[in-house]
Amino acid sequence: MLAAFDDAIADGVDVVSFSIEGKLPAPYFEDAAARSFHAMRRGVLTSAAAGNFALFGGCVCNVAPWMLSVAASSTDRRLVDKLVLGNGKTIVRASINIFPKIEKAPLAIPINGSCGTESLAGQSYKRKIHLCDRGSNGTGPLLAGAAGVVVVTGEPDIAFAFPLPALAITQDQFTEILAYVNRTCKPVGTVHRTEATFDSKAPAVASFSSRGPNLISTGILKPDLSAPGIDILAAWTPVSSNLKGNRFATYNIISGTSMACPHATGVAAYVKSFHPDWSPAMIMSGLMTTATPMDPALNPGGGELVYGAGRLNPARARGPGHLRAVTGNNATACPAGGKRGGTADLNYPTMAHRALPGKNFTVHFPRTVTTVGAPGSVYTAKIVSSGPFIRVAVAPRKLVFSRLLQKLSFTVTARGALPAGNEFVSAAVVWSAGVRHAMANLGLRRFAIA
């Protein structure tokens, strides 16, 4: 893996797509973070997966400030399947089912509750729909001659593929099905084929997508942004494995931050094609400051700690108007002299601060921007959603650019005190000049002290 970074740099690539992640972040100068640092020094941006461990106690990984950390979010297309019970009740959930509809097949619960191959051996479950509350990939029911399978999953927003007609449901839905089975003499169900429907709640970050905070440097907000990573049509090699049930194809439906990361990689390459002289930090800034804001109500768990600067916006990314870029010694997220801390003055597109509950704080975030838009642009700052617990100010409130590539500075100051029950407070500074808008997100989080 590390040699692949060196080869990519030697080959002269502009962007490295790094869809490898873990449960927790590694130190900055180990393994991939170290190689991506060398790539950055040679003008190569590394776009990396944020991680798939939110449901297993993990935190966002690939958090080095020179890496673009990408969370996974939904699109407005949702793949759903339906199980219609004999009493007319319809259970709807995300699923991939390309098989013909099963009409009124008997519902069966395995004797010991397991749908494993060994547990089903010797039992009569042919032409029945198996109800599996312990999870199953469908292999056991398939070998037992089942007509279909209903499986409980902890990731209800993902459409799973099975080797037979199937539906992946929540525990609550499974309990509802059991109630019908227990009060019915001959319970039956009908499994429909998958349909593509419109998801009005999109984009929403995936349940599995690893959240912040950044455990290495709490003053650097991670993930950086979100991109499509749920039910993505992706290339698939038939050499690696089949799609279950001896079905081979050159494509598949895949979910994960490893699907979101290539979207960001592609947009980064797209931006680079218009601006070949832009550095990796400039491209990161272009992507992050033009991201589309996301609704925190649809993304519980900490606002920007879930989705970063927002949803990747390819159309706006290539013309952000002005940019912030990590430069000089601060590229290592360390202040001059090598002392610990000091991330607030890192010229990063977003801002974060660790605050203790009930304690007054004041923090300053100095930033320098470079205009890449039309000369004569005048940007005015607006504070968005700072809430009652903090006060956010920007000085100066207006930036007047007289020439291309001119550098101007401003400082964002946040002060206040977070209550004990408030885990996360966020705000945003939006710089506007006509139709151009660039956003700088600010996240303030209360951390428990172990």
TrEMBL record:
Bilayer-crossing regions: none
Keywords: Hydrolase, Protease, Serine protease, Signal
An example Gene Ontology molecular-function term: serine-type endopeptidase activity
Keyword Signal: yes
GO BP: any one term: proteolysis
Pfam families: fn3_6 (PF17766), Peptidase_S8 (PF00082)
Keyword Transit peptide: no
Gene3D superfamilies reported for this sequence: 2.60.40.2310, 3.50.30.30, Peptidase S8/S53 domain
The Subtilisin-like protease fibronectin type-III domain, residue ranges: 345-436
Segments forming domain Peptidase S8/S53: 3-309
Family: Belongs to the peptidase S8 family.
Name the record gives this protein: Subtilisin-like protease SBT4.6
Taxonomic lineage: Eukaryota, Viridiplantae, Streptophyta, Embryophyta, Tracheophyta
